[in-house]
Amino acid sequence: MLLAIDVGNTNTVLGLFALDGPDDDRLIASWRIKTDARTTADEMVLTFRGLLAGHAEVTGIALCSTVPAVLREMRVMLERYYADIPTVIVEPGTKTGVPVLTDNPKEVGADRIVNTIAAHHLYGGPCIVVDFGTSTNLDVVSAKGEFLGGALAPGIEISLDALANRAAALRKVELIRPRAAIGKNTVEALQSGALYGFAGQVDGLVDRIAEELGGVSAVVATGGLAPIVVPESRTITVHEPDLTLIGLDLVYRKNQ
């Protein structure tokens, strides 16, 4: 079994893949846990072993991280508890097969490269990946599978948290669809602004990027907050919640 680990700023997502069988039947199970930069290697292994209990033995590990402190502890955990298991960490120098056509390729997050691999593998190109996480990332993939760049915007939860902290009369609300775009109370007004506002933001950016590219084959949504926005977006064509895990699986196989 391959254990794929995607460490994000807010959540860490784990996936367990069969190392044989067809592509569409390889993901056996997945979990989402909170990311805590203070977690130690010993605490991590206890969590992982608890989640993996009852599953077949892990024989390979693929990892990407956007949190340096967690990545450091992950390396300690892998060296201490999984030293005999083949491991691929996606970082500068790792073989991914993705040309990064930006001014400074080393500053591009590993998760964005992994998403590029998975999106091009599944949907071809040119395409756009919209990753709804701590930030909202739009990653642009060429017809050849190159990472062309993209756009970054504050994430939905970060924006609502900032608004609640800076405006005395406003508060955090549940992110659900309001009765109408015209909010009749403070809660519905905040929900309308968040939900329809972020959907409109994504649609506007996708329109501009697609115009520069001359069209796209797919607009792929992923990330923990994607299910909230996808139904309200007119440009997103497919929702793939396991996109980053699929990309890690592909990188692992490429490096074996």
Shape: globular
Number of helices: 7
Instruction: List low-confidence stretches.
Output: none
Helix fraction by DSSP (H/I, runs of at least 4)? 25-40%
Return Rg in Å.
19 Å
In a few lines, what is going on in this structure?
The protein is an alpha/beta fold and 256 residues long.
Question: What report would you give on this structure?
Answer:
With 256 residues, the protein is of the alpha/beta class. It folds into 2 domains: 2-124 and 242-254, 2-Layer Sandwich (Nucleotidyltransferase, domain 5), CATH 3.30.420; 135-239, Nucleotidyltransferase, domain 5 (2-Layer Sandwich). The protein is built from 7 helices and 10 strands. A 5-stranded mixed β-sheet has the order 3-2-1-4-5, with helices on both faces. Strand 7 (135-141) and strand 8 form a beta hairpin. Helix 1 (41-52) packs across helix 2. The longest helix is centred in the last third of the chain and has 28 residues, at 186-213. The radius of gyration is 19 Å and the shape is globular. The protein starts with a strand and ends with a helix.
